[in-house]
Amino acid sequence: MSTAEELERKLDSFFEMVEQIKKNIYKPSAVESERVDRPLNAIGDIGSLWHAHTTKIAITFKPPVAIKAACQCIEDCSNLVAPLAAAYMGMSDEKDGVLIRQETRSRIYDLLSVQLQFVKELKAVPKDQDSEKSGSSNSTLVSVGEVWEMCNKLKELPKLSLAKLVQAKLSEYSKMIQDGLQDLKDWLEDPDAADFDFGDENSDSEEDNEHNDTNETTTNEDTIKLGERWADKLVKLEFLYRSISKRRCTLLSTETLNTIYTQVDELSGLIDDLVCSFLDKNDCSEIQELSDTVDTKVKSIVDLVILKNQDDQFVKWVDLFNKNFYS
């Protein structure tokens, strides 16, 4: 007969298993995993089963806890962890696409995170069979809804639209451009302002600061002009992202969508470096070199969205974009 001690052991084992997968899911695996047939469908099915087992767990843990049934429910849900990890580990960027794989990993990670919290709450439930001593079940229901929600996210994976994912990412990167643009505008208001003070308790003495002040140089005029150009170009680039999202994502092939995501992701890092190079008062020649690299990356993205035999309003707009962006 199952006992409260056995139930605690099963909860501990479940927790450790989930925690281990959660810790390793973002780490590159040295061992190539066997690919599961139609991994997104497999993960979606696991999400459905996980949802059902979570419902049963919530019912069996309602005081007084049904120890035997609870043990079986925890074991059934525990048995889904390894297949879930295996289905994801067998995915690859080449066969499934970078963005789809990343989104799958993110959703699995979110499920594992809320599941850990749910198990903690289950462990806190009194296992005494006396209902008067068992208290309320409210604590067990705090995370159960979150687990259901994450399970539903897994169930959606087989029907996931890559185009919509790319559109969402373009929106995220547009906001990052806005942040970079604001930083650049702030710098342009006073290019010679002192660097940010991070409140370091071990900062230089007043004598050292006075010495540093005497060595400060004014920002090169060419650097300021380049910064002004990029303040204007970032506005145009953000509009390019919105135009691609609205007018091209649903027309592009899976391969092109994956490539666009990869290119835009790389461009985001380059733009961050470019803005920081202004703020850090780098040499103008270094900033110009990075500027040229960003220009080249933007061109590669534009080339991807110009469809063959497609002469619509978007193509005419891109011609105008190129003329203004590179002038």
TrEMBL record:
Bias-annotated ranges (Acidic residues):
195-210
Family annotation (InterPro entries) = GCIP-like, GCIP-like_N
Task: Output the superkingdom of the source species.
Answer: Eukaryota
Q: Which residues form the signal peptide?
A: none
Boundaries of every Cyclin-D1-binding protein 1-like N-terminal domain copy: 44-190
State the residue spans of region: Disordered: 195-222
Task: Please name the Gene3D superfamilies in this protein's record.
Answer: I/LWEQ domain (1.20.1410.10), Talin, central domain (1.20.1420.10)
Record's Gene Ontology CC terms? nucleus
The record's section on Pfam families has: GCIP_N (PF13324)
Q: Please report the name of this protein according to its UniProt entry.
A: Cyclin-D1-binding protein 1-like N-terminal domain-containing protein
Q: Which organism is it from?
A: Trichomonascus ciferrii
* Phylogenetic lineage: Eukaryota, Fungi, Dikarya, Ascomycota, Saccharomycotina
